[in-house]
Each structure stands twice: as structure tokens, then as C-alpha cells.
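Budget justification note: compute hours in this period were largely spent on complex prediction jobs such as the one shown. Inputs:
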Amino acid sequence: MSGLPQVVVRACVVLVLLVQSAPAQAIPYQRPVDTAPQADSIGGGYKVPAVQKPLPRDYWLQVVDVVALAAAMGVSVWLVLRRRSRRWLTALTIGCLAYFGFYRQGCICPIGSLQNVVVALADPRYSIPMVVTATFVLPLVVALYFGRAFCGGVCALGAIQELVVLKPVQVPRRLDRALGLLKYVYLGLAVLFAVKPALARDFLICRFDPFVGFFRRTGAPHMLILGAAFLVAGMFVGRPYCRYLCPYGGLLAWCARLARRGVTITPNKELDCGLCAEACPYGAIERMRAVRRNCLYCARCYASCPRERGVAS
Amino acid sequence: MQYRHVQAIDGKGAVHGIALDGNGQLYAAGDSGIEVFDAAGRFNRRWPTSKPALAVAVASDGAVYAGEAGQIEIFDGTGKPIATWRDQKLLGRVTAIGFTGDSVLAGDAADRAIRRFDRSGKFLNNIGKDNPVNGLLIPNGVVDFGVDAQGIVYAANPGKHRVERYTPGGELLGHIGRFDGVDPAGFTGCCNPTNVAIRDGIYTTEKAGPRVKAYDFSGKLLAVIATDLFDANCKNMSIAVDARGRVYVVDTVKAAILIFERVNA
Amino acid sequence: MSEDLTRRTVLAALAGGAVFLVKKANGQIVWQVNAARCINSRLGDTGVEACNLCTTECVVALSAVRAVNEYSKCGRCNICPAYFNISSAVNELGQPGEKLCPRDAIARKPIGKVDPEDPANNFYEYIIDEEKCDGCGKCVLKCKEPLGLGSITLRVRYDRCVNCNRCSISRACPQNALMQLPIGQAL
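Corresponding output:
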């Protein structure tokens, strides 16, 4: 009978001793009272200088970029469909490469903007700036009416590839069409990774842009090598990124199908010589006509047409 | 000289300042008020203060002075309030209290100065304020000082890496110490020593590489009392030395008071 | 004919989508360093090495991240651990012989009432030159409490940042210290 209470008392004593000897809780380390000397304490007419808070690029300059994009596409349409001058188109290509490519460093571009649009549609908390929406929509609207004017001389990635075309080989039609499906796979992947929640989200098109390293004049070695490889390949297989990988090109192709106007090789009657089909580096000529969805608006076809030059009667 | 760590006392909540009285009792000023421990380190009593107490000192008559933001509260030895001195301008943030002759000294961190009052609370003069030119350079928000047996005030001037000697009237007599990031005899970092105590020598504490050192009055380093027993994030560690030469230092992160004893003379 | 109709439908869809997105448009969001997570500036960790991922990972040639000194929080100390290398030997002026910044980006000048005789008796302003700073974080680490007052932090500078969709520093940062904020909060 007396054994149990004794054990209990002993247990209590042990517990009390344990509690007493337990260490005090450490104070969570926090920033103490703000103690830095202020202007009145320092004296001598001293004023605390303001910390610089540099602002990003002015909004109106971003609007200028969108206007420039629209204007460049307008010029491209006029040059290719009306004026029909390949020389002037090359000038436009170089100009757009210089401005959108090397000056603006390829960012923001319509290709990447499709990811932002997808994120904005999927994530209610993500808000997309208006200029980005405009950058996405404008080339598609132009494609709906006139075809892929954006690809012809305005897109910086296209322009850099366009300028290295040397001795293009004609890729066999079946292979060309099969490879062309890759861009829809890339489009699907880009959309898939863009709709993920914020921290898991990945902007694949930005990450695997092969030419942005040249535009920025700096980049990871493997990306620069990849870009150079694309350019070397582009000397012999015209514009490989545009034809086989560009996800935005996939969207442009769908819109261009519905275009009312497009590149015409000869205004009224085509010849049978097939010089246009040989001249086209992008395999966009079928049955002596430019196929709207594949035509990249380079104007080589009619530039090589004897009728254009007034040679044949 | 060698010291060894003999005891640790846990404070209740954050501890900002400590002091010893004539009987070796330890008074700790913290957020929850004043705590008193006896000479063996056992808890004796505690009482609350109207604001978090930043500093404490015990006068020769046993009155306990607690320094706070904007005021000094005076209690008797049992914790009964005797008087309160309120002055937002002169007592903005009292982080150290001392006594010299008939005067009460209060270190005001808000104005980087040591104030001298008489026993009734009348302001007499400043010590260390803009003397010379910029006076006490206090980036850490704590003014600390000690008083020796002759009544000379030893003020820690961390911005200059010195302990400066002042007369009670405010005249600068000289200083000991210099900056040195390599030699342990110097004070390292941006602003050290943060706290100082005077007994038979000058005892200082430093932050960022927390360190407790003892110097003689000519400025020669006598001992590095402790370095790695403190939490590395400690800052403004209050220090007190009793008549037996035991050194009491506050670990501000662990809210404990570590006691060190001299091993050989 | 149906081509016309399809074209009009697609156009309407694009226009509708654009209007929907424009209605949501709400100013710019930008990347910024969270000082409470960045290991160079967050409280509590001592004895760590300075992390320079902000310098090495940024896609811009000279990183868009800079060390920024919040002047109102700076102690204006004579011996600043972010300016001097306080572990170096002391020279004849009583100051550490070496400076900390590998690119010599911090300038030091006396302010306030200047004591001509005793340089230790002065306040000093420390100004970081943003043309030279590359965001390596050494000064930020030394300024951190308790050694300093923590007035220097790493910040993204928007006149240099290209505002990538997915900041490559944010991808690399082991503390997840890069976050996206509306421009008003991020400044």
C-alpha cells in the first residue's frame, strides 16, 4: 500500500528536477532595434542620400516595339506581294535582324509570347502585359489575311537563318512533311510546361532558343554551339528551325491556310520550267504554286522566274 | 591569465543588462523586468518593470536603477518602486547606468551620450557627446560604460575601437585599445567593444566573433576570457565583474548569463 | 466561302482572347531577390561562404544583380567590414591593409562633422558603384548582422534586367530567394 505512492513521489521529484534543469529557450534571432545613426545625429549638414531605384524600360518604348512589329509586317506584305522586290526584302530582313535581334536581344518575341498567353489563360493570378498580347496576336492576324509575312524578313530568328542560306538542298517531300510535325510536338510540350503551377512552370521556348546567345553576345557554351550548328545546317537545309521546330510557326501555318492572299509566282499564267520550285529553299512550291502554309515569304520564287524578269515572252 | 567557465544562469526571456551589488548578488534586466540571483547563482526574486528593462545598476544604498526607453525606474532592494525619472530627450534609450561620487550616470543610446544627474534626478552635464567632434560612435544601439574606484568613467566607443576615459565633468582624458582584425589584443569588426566593465582592470565584450577580454588600465591585454562558448549571433553582451574577480557575461541569443572564474592569478 | 467563315471565326477567337487578356493586364511583374531568404543576407547563419550564383547565372553579360546599400540603415562606421577585409593586417593608418571588393566597387568618403586630426572620429559614407559591382555578394555577407547592420543587400536592377520569363538565377538559387513581384513592390 505504501509502495505505490512512494514510487509516484519519486517519479514526481525526478520530473521536477528534469524540468528545472532543462535549458531556457533560445531567443529566436531577429534584427534588433534600428540603430543606425541618422542625419541629425551625424550633423554637419549631412543628408541621407536616396537609394537609387532604377526603373525598367519605359512603357512607351515597349509600345514602339509593337508598332515597329506591325509596321515591319506591313512593309513585308507590301514588298513581297505588291512591289515584288527581293532586294528590298533582304534589306528589311537585315533591318529587322538588327533591331529585333541584336538591339532588343530577341526579347520579347512572338514565338515566346505564346507561352505567356497560355499561362495567362491557365493561371488566374498571372497577368500578361498588353504589349505581349499584341505581340502574339498581330502576326497571326496578318497570317490570316496575307500569309506568313512575319516569317518573311521580320522574325529575328528567321532572319538570321535566312541570311545564311547558301546552297540549299531540296528535302524529299515526305521527309519534309514528317519533320514538320515536330513543331507541333514542340508546341504541345511548350503549352504543357507553361500550364504548370508557378514554381514548376518552365518556358521551354525561351530556354531552348538557339539564337538568343548570339543576340545577347553571351550565353551558355552548349547553347552557343547549338546555335552555330543550326546556322551551319541552315546553309544547306534552308531555315531548319523555322520549318521543323518553331511552335509559333505551327500556329502561323494554320492561320496562313485561310489567307485570302499569298505569294503569287506569276500574275496570270505559270510556266512549266519549274525554276521557282528549284529556287525555293523551303519546299513550299507544289504544282508551281506557293503553298500558303509553308511559304516563308522569301520571294526567291518569283525572283528566279524568267517571266518576272521579262526574259520569256 | 586563464579563465574557465563555471556556471550558467538562465534568464527568463531576453536579458539586456546585468549588474552586481555589494553582496555579490546578480541583477538581470530583461524584457520581463528585473531578476535577482544570489551569490551562488540561485534565483532569488523578480519583479516587473513598466517597460522592457535595458540596463540595471545597484547603488551603494541598495537602490536598484532600471534603465528603459525614455525613463529610469528606481526600486528598493525588494522591488518596491521608489521613483521614476522620465525624460524623452535626455533618457531616450538608457542602456547603461553607473554611479560616480554623488552622481548617477545614464548612457543614452538614442543620443549617443552619457548623462550625469545628481541623486534627485537633476541633469548636470553630458559625457562623451560630440566630444571631440563626434563623440561616442554607436552603431549598435547600446552605450556602455564602467566607473573605476576613483570615479573616472570608462566608456566603450565601438566606432573608434576604443575604451575612452572621461572625468565625471565630461573631459576626455585618454583611451586604450585600437582596431586590429588579426591581433587578439585589438578590437575587430566594425564596432567593438560593445560593452565594458571596470573592476581591477578593463573587461570588454565584442560581437561577431563574440569575445570577452580583460585588459589592465594601461591597455595591455591580460586574458581572452572566452570566445566560442557564446552563440555566434550574440550582440551587445552585457558584462559585470564581482569583487572576487568572477566575470559575468550575457549570451543574448540563449538568454543565459555565463560565469567565468580565474584559474591562476 | 467556308474559308471566309473559318477565317472570320479564327479572327473573332483571336480578338476575343486578346480582349480577355487585355482586361486582365495589370502592369509589369519583375524578379527581385528576397533578402530574408538569400543566404548572403538572411539572419542567423554564420560562418557561411558568400554565394555568387547571382553573378554567374544571370544571362546578361554583367549580371543584373547589384549590391545595394540602404543608406538610412548603414552604420557609417570607420572600419566597415564590407569595405575593408578585416582579416588583413593593419597598416600604418590603423586600417586594414586590403579592401574586400574584388572589383573595387565601393567608395568611402567622410561625412558630417569631420575631425581633421583623428580619422577614426568620423562617420563615413559607403557608396557602391553599379558599373563595377557584379553582385558577387561578398560585401553583403560581411555587412550581415551581427558583424554589420545588414544595410547592404543584393537587388535586381531593372535598367539591366531583361525580365526573363523564368529567371535563370531563380532556377539555380538553392534558397529559392528569387521571386516575382509587381514593379511597385519590387522597387
